[in-house]
Structure formats: structure tokens, C-alpha cells
Fold each of these.
Amino acid sequence: MSTISVTVNGRSYQNDVEPRTLLVHYLRDSLGLTGTHIGCDTSQCGACTVMLDGVSVKSCTLLAVQADGAKITTIEGLAQDGQFHPLQEGFWERHGLQCGFCTPGMIMSACDLLQQNSNPSEAEIRHALEGNLCRCTGYHNIVKSVQYAAAKMRGEQPEEVSTESVAQPA
Ligand code: FES
Ligand code: FES
């Protein structure tokens, strides 16, 4: 066993982990942060994405011991004082999810994008989310959700959308 110290969503933890433990398993099984999902075993789906020292990573591609000393943010750490993060609000307002399985990873990847680019184009959003797979939405509303959040984070009113341009879940 190895002892690691991490800060997750602003809280400090010290735990003994097996050297083979993946970060995603540590977050879910040791810390109970099950908002970080596991959708594949090939590092392709992105459902496990978290922020590690300010950069989005697929937490199934790292060992927990590699995160020793890091600051991690998971989907559980985004809302502040009972208020949704603009991305969470955007996914709600623009119907960016259906089953919701991919959503935590989508949001964490979008967080990384919006901290680098406050006004991404549709193409830039699609490019940034290439590593996140969604089986349900067709991605259109996910792009709209990120655009909503980007506008909010710039202090602008998100563009009004007609019900035709936000595809409603079947
Ligand atoms: S669980 Fe699919 S990329 Fe990590
Ligand atoms: S909303 Fe179901 S996988 Fe994306």
C-alpha cells in the first residue's frame, strides 16, 4: 500500500491505496464520489473526466498514486453555495442530457475548454469534447449547453433559442 494526500473539491484526504488503483476507482470507491462515471475500459468514453491541477484528465488513465499532492475537482465540486455552475445550468436549460451518464465528464471537459477560451465557436466546442462520447443526445444540445454557460460566464445573457433549435428529448 502507498499513502497519498489529495485535495478533492476543496477537502483534504489522506488514504492508503494499492499501487494499481486507478484514480477513478479511488474517487468512487474510497471517497464515495460516484458522480465520476466509468463507461468503458479502453479510455475512450470520457465519462470519468475530472480536473486535476486545473487540467481535465480521464481519471481511468491515471493511477491514484500519480495524483498524490494534486488538487482535484469532480462534478460534485462544481456547484457553489447551492447554486449550479453555469455549465450545470446550461445542460439543464438547453436539454444537454438524456440518460445523463456522459454528463459529468462532458461538463468537466467543457470546464477545461471555458477556462482557456471564454467564447468558443461551435467547432471549437465540438473539438474540445471529441474525447467524450454520448449515446443519447446527438451532441447538438450539448453544444448549445456549453454556449449557454460560456455566455453566462462572460456576464452576458445567453441567446434565446426557439424550441425548434433545442431538440427535445424523445
Ligand atoms: S471510463 Fe471511459 S474514458 Fe475513462
Ligand atoms: S445523455 Fe446518455 S450518454 Fe449522453
Note: The chain has a mean pLDDT of 95.
Amino acid sequence: MNGRDGYFDEGVAARYDESDADMFAPEAVEPVVDFLAAIAGRGRALELGVGTGRIALPLAARGVRVHGIELSRAMTARLQAKPGGDDIDVTIGDFATTRVDATFSLAYLVFNTIMNLTTQSAQIDCFRNVAAHLEPGGCFVIEVGVPALQWLPVGEVFHVFRGGEDAWGIDEYDVASQALTSHHVEMIDGRLEWTSIPFRYVWPSELDLMAQIAGMTLRERWGGWKGEPFTKESRQHVSVWEMPGS
Ligand SMILES: C[S@@+](CC[C@H](N)C(=O)[O-])C[C@H]1O[C@@H](n2cnc3c(N)ncnc32)[C@H](O)[C@@H]1O
């Protein structure tokens, strides 16, 4: 399972757009693209974990030049086969360390993908790598869930985040190590398939410290892409850190 393409191998890539159809709906994508296009301005954007181009393609269609870093060749092949795919350059590699020979006004990492880095040091490396690519005054945007520990009864380790007729999602928390294993059970062609993906959950304040280590400061934090306030009830956040200006 965890081969050359990581957890997003051929089988996952083939079903990705369909199984996350709600995330591809215009009402989910457009606010993200509006937000990112406003920050990119006339500059270039770097998407870490660009996947099948859910955000990169519509952002490029707005006139922003987008470059992706992606581990999975299977996901990249799906992106490149789509209309507009030729406009997105993709560098295959680990976004914690892979360098692209260009600089950007915006780097972004959406859909909880910072948690795919399963150690604190890899997450810090990612911030450092982004800082090395950003122009003075450039911004790094992350969209990630707030760790759902408030919804776990004392001693419980499982949190059901998705339930339905043919798909279930259960997160398993280890509060000692900040490890999170996301179990996905899906009915595919009449057969139950089970996938478990390891993550590292990370607190907003911890991300701020990683940004500080990499030379960035927090500019904004929202509860969603439409400027919702970030409060104690927020289930996710959209955070923007900024490099010092020129
Ligand atoms: C949840 S998907 C998100 C894809 C896309 N950003 C989107 O919003 O639909 C996470 C993507 O990040 C990629 N990925 C995970 N860890 C990575 C890493 N360390 N380096 C590069 N890509 C990675 C996966 O292969 C996958 O395509």
C-alpha cells in the first residue's frame, strides 16, 4: 500500500474525485479559489500535495500560474489528463523537502494534507521548505481540521467523521504521540474495502510556532474559506502566515 505513490496509489487515484465528490462541488471549490487568487495577486502559486488538481486547475483558470509538488505519480497522471492539466507543472517528490527552481507569492496546503506528514520534524521541514520558496511578503496558507479531541469522551480513541450507506470514516487518536489513523471503509462494486492512513494531528498554536521557526508570522486565521470567524467551536481553520516584506 505505502509504495512509490504513498497512500494515493493507482486504486485511490482512480476513485479520488468520485469518492470526495462533495469537495469537488463548485460551492466547496469556489470560496477556496477566491481566497487563494486574492492572496496570489499577480504572482505564482505553489500547491503542496496538488493531487488531481481540484484547486490548482480552477485557480490556474483564474490566471494564476500554479506549480505543484506531489508524491503520487498516479494522482499526477489524473491531473495531467484533465483539460488545463498541461498548464500545471508538477514536481514529483515529498513536499517537506522537494525544491522547485522558482519563487512564489503564495504557497498553499489544503484539505488537511499537512497531517500527511507524520512527524513533527517533517511538518517543520515543510514550513522551512515553503519559506525557501516564498518571495518577500509571500504567504503560506493551510486548511486543516482542529484536532477533534473535544468530541472524544474520556478514554475513547475513535471518532466517526463520516457515515453513510456505502462509506464510513473513523479517526483513531493516540493522544500520547499525536498520531491519528484514519480508517476508511467503503463498499466498492459490492465488496467492502478498508484503508487505514496514518496522520499526525497538529494544533493551530503548534503551526504558529513552526511558522515562527521558518521565519513567518501569522497574518490571519479564519474558521473557513468565506471569512468565518475562528472560535472555540471551529472544526477547521484556514491560516495565513507571511514572510517578512522586502
Ligand atoms: C487529500 S489529497 C489532497 C489533494 C488536493 N490538494 C486536493 O485538495 O484535492 C493529499 C495529496 O497530497 C499528496 N501527498 C501526501 N503526502 C505528501 C508528501 N509528503 N509529499 C508530496 N505529496 C504528498 C497525496 O499523494 C495526495 O495527492
Note: Residues 6, 8, 49-51, 54-55, 69-72, 75, 94-96, 110-111, 113, 116-117 surround S-adenosylmethionine (CB under 6 Å).
